[in-house]
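notes to self, project folder thing:

trying the whole complex as one job this time. last attempt i did each chain seperately and stitching them together was a nightmare. two parts in total, labels are on each line so i dont mix them up again. if this works i'll redo the older ones the same way
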Amino acid sequence: MAAVVRTSGGATAEMKKKSLVPYFLLAPGLLWLALFFVAPIITLVSTATKTSGAGIGEFVQTYRWANYWDALTGASAQFGRSFLYAFIATLLALAIAYPLAYGIAFKSGKYKNILLVLVVAPFFCSFILRTIAWKQILGQNGPVFRTLADLHLISNTTHITASVPAVIIGLAYNFLPFMTLPLYGSLERIDPRVLEASGDLYANAFTTFRRVTVPLSMPGVVAGTLLTFIPAAGDYVNAEILGNPSTKMIGNVINAQFLNTQDYPTAAALSFILMIAISIMVMIYVRKAGTEELV
Amino acid sequence: MKTLTRWFSRNLIRIYMVIGFTYLFIPVAYTFAFSFNDYIKSNLVWRGFTWNNWKQPCGVLDVCPALGNSIKIGLLATFIATILGTLIAFALGRYAFRGRAATNTLIFLPMASPELVLGASLLTIFLNLGMNLGFWTIVIAHVMFCISFVVVTVKARIASLDPRLEQAAMDLYANERETFRRVTFPLVAPGIAGAALLAFSLSFDDFIITNFNSGTTVTFPLYVYTHAERGLPAQANVIGSAMFFLALIIVVLGQVVSAKRKVGTK
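result (full assembly):
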């Protein structure tokens, strides 16, 4: 949620220097991350190069780096789908969240804090429950389908769920607060006098919005789109609940290979490729967007 | 004409906000409504209103043990992650030291990795070490992904402190420890409380990472997911709705308290 951390706000003049204290403070937490975040990623990389051994479900280390290529070509369709769905869901979430954040920041006066709480509130009602709720709302017995069918806008045999739009609606929905909060954060920081100045210089409301508000809210846009895109690209719950076999995303493949087929090398290779692909996209995006606010 | 467009543009935002909030709350409202459904076996079709599900939230096999697991894991993971994360936040916010950039990166990376990768890589190492999956592997995983969120939240609070308050304490002959105990820590405390609440809600609601590392232990999200196929009992809706209102009350109370405090100091 608050992944935007200012690097420039680093060490200040009053900070205590040359002491061992910070290392004692850091040690336990960083040790935990080293053991349960860094070491697992390294294990992931090496597990991916194993090949089947003598027994069933047994794998031996043979450093077969071609496993990565095999995994990638074997699941390229799901990779493409994941990034496409995540991209569309991110755009959809941005389109919904921007006016929402704008309204909360500029148009809601004393109700600001309450509305902010309401943005996060759906989070507390289980994520899986809400996704299942979408399935039932959009499903054959749900209100949306029944209404459309009764009005003869769709036939009784079509499905709204088990489709690409349903998966995308679910993805955009699930990560909407992640989009809204950083947007609100950067919009709220805009000095209203800057907007007034733009008006004084004969810009109309739309020009002010386009030339002043939007550029000043870019850090929020970048943070929000990243916080939506990253989890959306790795998600499999929405595709599982709201999709059909032809909407499977890379997450579904990795999940099935780890937990059902137990083909650990391929699953590990796919996980690592996913991580690297996302990191590269993030780096290019952050550079293009030109913000240095992300650590 | 000008007033008309102004009226329209002002209300356009309002209309957008209504649409946005409706989108956010439709599934919550649906979940809440169907917690009152007089269902048989699967809670898919509305059959009539009843209080029974709310009267007997544990009336279905396995729901309450799963909820109990989620609460236990959530509290433990929150406790550990809040301590570890707060220590890191103080180191980053109060000290200059070598390796600062590397630390920041290490804190940021788990937040920037898809949950799937975090869960899958932990499972790989647990399998390689031959560890039994279950309650404790879930706790380990939850602490891991909560630490970063705690660090970021607490660090932001420390950064927003007015350094003059601590200087004033020192000027009044408080030593370093007293200043920390009587001034710095009480000022940072709301940030720590917020971080703990965030950590608990992340842990309580986590599905993907938990699903990889749970073995045979069932948490509430896992229960909901596995029962979705066969038909979910309305008790799951009861628990989801109850957690929603509980969290809402806690957050609103927190806001009221902090608002009162602000009025009091001014």
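what i see at first glance: The two ends of chain B are 45 Å apart (CA to CA).
need to look closer tmrw
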